[in-house]
Design brief:
This protein has 216 residues and is an alpha+beta fold. The chain folds into 2 domains: 85 residues, Aminopeptidase; 124 residues, Aminopeptidase, CATH 3.40.630.30. 20% of the residues lie in helices and 34% in strands. The chain has 5 helices and 11 strands; from the N terminus they run H-E-E-E-H-E-E-E-H-E-E-E-H-E-H-E. The strands form 2 sheets. Strands 4-11-5-10-9-8-7-6 form an 8-stranded mixed β-sheet, with helices on both faces. Strands 1-2-3 form a 3-stranded antiparallel β-sheet, sandwiched between helices. Strand 8 and strand 9 form a beta hairpin. The termini are far apart.
Length: 216
C-alpha cells in the first residue's frame, strides 16, 4: 500500500516535481524538507547518499532506510505512529480560518517556536496552510506535507503557547481533514489523544531513522 512507504509514494507522485533522485533513493531539496526515501530497507547506497546528502547534513527516513556508509552516523529513533481518519470530524464553531499563503513569515515564526525539528524555509511549498489569528498573532495553524493519490498528510498542527486550550487545533483539524493521514510520536500522548478524539486511528507503527554525513 502507498502508505507503507509514504515518503517514496509522495516523491513518486504528488511531489515528483520536487524529487531529487540518485540510485534507489529520492529526497526533497534541503530547503524544503530533510527527508530521504528508500525503496528497500538495508541496501548499500553509498554513492547515492554521497550525491544527495551534504557534508554535515542530517536527514530522516520514514520507513525503509539504506545501510549507513562507513563513518556516517545512523540513529534509530524508534517508531512513529501513522494515523488515518476514516470519517472527517465536524468543524467546531470558532474564529475565522484563513489561508496562510500571504503569511509565510508568520508560519515560519510559529514553526520555529513550537514545531522546529523538520520545518525548513520552503516547507510551505509542500501543500496548503491555514491558520487562526488573534489580533496580529498567528495563534494556531495546520498544513499539508506528504501526499499521493487518495491521501494527504496533515502536518504542522500547532498552537502558540499563549493560545493553548481554546480548541483551535480541533477546529483546524475539522476544517482540513479529508482522506487524511498523519504521523505522530507515540510518546506525545496529548497529540495522540487529540487525533483520536477527532476520528483518527493508528494504522501502523513505522520506523523512523536519522542519518548524518560526517563533515569531511
Amino acid at each position: 500500500m502507498v502508505l507503507d512507504n509514504p515518503l517514496w509514494s509522495s516523491l513518486q507522485t504528488l511531489h515528483r516535481g520536487l524529487a531529487i533522485s540518485s540510485g534507489d533513493l529520492l529526497r526533497y531539496p534541503a530547503a524544503v524538507a530533510p527527508f530521504v526515501a528508500a525503496l528497500k530497507d538495508g541496501r548499500a547506497a553509498d554513492d547515492a547518499l554521497a550525491e544527495l546528502v551534504a557534508p554535515g547534513e542530517s536527514v530522516y527516513f520514514v520507513g525503509p532506510h539504506p545501510a549507513a556508509p562507513r563513518g556516517w552516523q545512523l540513529d534509530d529513533l524508534g517508531t512513529i505512529l501513522q494515523m488515518v481518519c476514516d470519517v472527517p470530524p465536524p468543524t467546531p464553531a470558532g474564529p475565522p480560518i484563513v489561508s496562510l499563503d500571504d503569511h509565510r513569515d508568520r508560519v515560519l515564526e510559529l514553526a520555529a517556536l513550537v514545531y522546529p525539528h523538520y520545518f525548513r524555509p520552503r516547507t510551505t511549498e509542500l501543500g496548503r496552510y491555514f491558520g487562526i489569528f488573534d489580533g496580529g498573532t498567528l495563534a494556531a495553524m495546520i498544513g499539508e506535507r506528504m501526499g499521493m493519490p487518495g491521501y494527504r498528510e496533515i502536518s504542522a498542527v500547532c498552537t502558540h503557547p499563549d493560545f493553548a486550550g481554546r480548541g483551535l487545533a480541533r477546529r483546524l483539524l475539522g476544517f482540513l481533514t479529508d482522506d487524511a493521514f498523519l504521523h505522530v510520536s507515540p510518546s506525545n500522548d496529548r497529540a495522540v489523544r487529540l487525533y483520536e478524539q477527532n476520528g483518527y486511528r493508528t494504522r501502523i507503527a513505522i520506523a523512523f531513522t536519522a542519518m548524518q554525513r560526517p563533515t569531511s
